[in-house]
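Good morning,

Attaching, inline, the backbone tokens for the sequence recovery test we're adding to the shared suite. The designed sequence is right after.
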């Protein structure tokens, strides 16, 4: 169907208006939102991730693709609820306490949402207690911690410690990332996974959730 192709190519090439128009027209014709998501949007974001990992796309291309994806998602999201399309799981994401950098975290959010998960975006400067609350009271199955400052990385460990103290550590997977973060650090603090980029974070969540 022409609209799915337009949505796929629109996301890939960051053409937000094309994605919006094709999504609106497909929904008006009665195409199920789940079909647009599964046949066009998720595959397009997967392709964006593949191109990024192959060094054919860089952060600017990814940002405009994410913007186009977001525009499409905002149109299908309300219909998905009507169609009772269940996400694969719930992921709470935030930039850790003391840290206000959110550009990378937002990209990670869109890639994980693009892979079919519900995102609970906790924002920036997120305390360990708020992450704990996302597991205890909001049903997060994975939490994603982003840090861009070497001085805020210890808040990742503090969050894992807070989960342990709350008796929730074995109920949730913890993934971490951000420019100064490394696999070695993830191992040191006992995180379940590390990704150096947004595309890898989506792959990691799928792996940890057995999708
Ligand atoms: Co700040 N800043 N900044 N800054 N800033 C850096 C990080 C810095 C490296 C610049 C430098 O000095 N060269 C430096 C940190 C040094 C250090 O700690 N070693 C720095 C500093 C020092 C500061 C301030 C302290 C400056 C000051 O006020 N004196 C201050 C701190 C404020 C605070 O947070 N409390 C500050 C402020 C800011 C702005 C507000 C001006 C702005 C942020 C705007 C915003 O985010 N809304 C800003 C910016 C833009 C940057 C740089 C220039 C760019 C960061 C960025 O958005 N990159 C940055 C220098 C740099 O990185 N070159 C810098 C693009 C983004 C797509 O990449 O965020 O790395 P990134 O995300 C990637 C991966 O890291 C990964 O995937 C993303 C996409 O592939 N990833 C994850 C990220 N999170 C992940 C989570 C995952 C998995 C992967 O799983 C959960």
């Amino acid at each position: 169907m022409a609209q799915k192709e337009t949505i796929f190519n629109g996301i890939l090439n960051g053409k937000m208006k094309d994605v919006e128009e094709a999504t609106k027209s497909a929904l008006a014709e009665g195409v199920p939102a789940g079909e647009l998501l599964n046949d066009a949007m998720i595959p397009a974001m997967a392709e964006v991730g593949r191109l990024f990992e192959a060094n054919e796309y860089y952060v600017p291309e990814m940002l405009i693709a994410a913007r186009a994806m977001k525009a499409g998602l905002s149109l299908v999201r309300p219909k998905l609820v009507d169609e009772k399309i269940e996400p694969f799981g719930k992921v709470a994401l935030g930039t850790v306490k003391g840290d206000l950098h959110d550009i990378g975290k937002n990209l990670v959010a869109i890639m994980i949402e693009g892979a079919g998960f519900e995102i609970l975006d906790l924002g920036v400067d997120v305390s360990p207690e708020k992450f704990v609350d996302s597991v205890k009271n909001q049903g997060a199955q994975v939490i994603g911690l982003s840090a861009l400052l070497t001085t805020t990385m210890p808040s990742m460990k503090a969050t894992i410690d807070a989960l342990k103290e709350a008796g929730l550590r074995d109920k949730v997977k913890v993934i971490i990332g951000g420019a100064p973060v490394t696999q070695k650090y993830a191992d040191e603090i006992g995180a379940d996974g590390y990704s150096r980029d947004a595309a890898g974070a989506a792959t990691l969540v799928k792996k940890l959730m057995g999708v």
